[in-house]
């Protein structure tokens, strides 16, 4: 597809997420709290907590807020008891969608997620119906023009799983999920600063959408991402960014 660009798609998605920054602190606090509850309050030995704290610092969250969230998770402060839920389904054109939630009311959450799917032309499926189409990993995107050979050598030495050269000239470094922070820091020290990156559920195959289908799919993703209990939305959909 002429307009299909990995670089443009990720920039587009990041821009939409940045526009919703009012929700970001709330979601980060939930994730920090649950990570601390599951694996303890020491980020040095709790990789999930380290990822959450790192993301919070990147978002300029005050350290006091981070520590309070950790304390709620470890029981040093009272807090809401969140449960992790994952919902799977299909969007426009059969695009796979996974929705990760943290909730204190499962009945409310599943009703909200189901409503968002049905209202915008998607279908909420059964557990496992699309999970096999995604891989848990980290990614780092580098702008077109960077030295591919040098980046590949540095990335693989740092422990990356793969380096992908996209048709638009951008380079993508794929990392094991819990080595993401270390690899990013190692590459930065070597002079390679990513434009963006995160730990995600990466679709193994893209579902390319354009025109009205792309508009409808974006509305579905926006509806899901706007729900209070939703932490992350993953999809195989990519949009024509021509």
Low-confidence stretches: none
Order of helices and strands: HHHHEEHEEHEEHEEHEE
Using DSSP, what is the number of strands? Answer: 10
Round the mean pLDDT to the nearest integer and report it: 90
Helical percentage: 40-55%
The total count of helices amounts to 8
CATH architecture of the domain at 6-74: Orthogonal Bundle
Shape: flat
Radius of gyration of CA atoms, rounded to a whole number: 18 Å
Percentage beta strand: 15-25%
**End-to-end separation:** 9 Å
Structural class of the secondary structure composition? Answer: alpha+beta
* CATH topology grouping of the domain at 6-74: Arc Repressor Mutant, subunit A
Care to describe what's here?
It is a single chain. The chain is α+β, with helices and mostly antiparallel strands and 242 residues long. The chain has a domain at 6-74: Arc Repressor Mutant, subunit A (Orthogonal Bundle). 44% of the residues lie in helices and 23% in strands. It has eight helices and ten strands. The strands form three sheets. It has a four-stranded antiparallel β-sheet with strand order 3-1-2-9. A four-stranded antiparallel β-sheet has the order 5-6-4-7, with helices on both faces. β5 and β6 form a beta hairpin. α2 crosses α4 (63-74) and α6 packs across α7 (180-189). The longest helix has 19 residues, at 21-39. The termini are close together.
């Amino acid at each position: 597809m002429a307009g299909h660009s990995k670089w443009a798609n990720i920039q587009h998605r990041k821009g939409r997420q940045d526009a919703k920054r009012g929700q970001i602190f709330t979601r980060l606090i939930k994730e920090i709290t649950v990570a601390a509850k599951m694996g303890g309050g020491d980020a040095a030995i709790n990789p999930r907590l380290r990822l959450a704290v790192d993301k919070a610092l990147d978002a300029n969250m005050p350290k006091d807020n981070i520590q309070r969230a950790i304390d709620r998770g470890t029981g040093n402060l009272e807090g809401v008891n969140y449960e992790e839920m994952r919902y799977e389904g299909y969007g426009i054109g059969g695009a796979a969608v996974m929705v990760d939630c943290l909730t204190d009311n499962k009945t409310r959450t599943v009703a909200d997620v189901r409503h968002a799917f049905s209202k915008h032309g998607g279908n909420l499926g059964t557990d496992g119906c699309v999970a096999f189409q995604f891989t848990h990993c980290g990614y780092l995107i580098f702008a077109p023009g960077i030295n591919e050979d040098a980046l590949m050598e540095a990335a693989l030495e740092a422990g990356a799983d793969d380096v992908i050269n996209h048709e638009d000239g951008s380079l993508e470094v794929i990392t094991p999920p819990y080595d993401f922070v270390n690899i990013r820091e190692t590459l930065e020290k070597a002079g390679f600063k990513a434009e963006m990156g995160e730990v995600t559920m990466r679709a193994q195959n893209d579902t390319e959408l354009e025109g009205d289908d792309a508009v409808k799919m974006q509305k579905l993703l926006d509806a899901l991402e706007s729900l209070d209990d939703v932490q992350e939305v993953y999809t195989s959909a990519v949009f024509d960014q021509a």
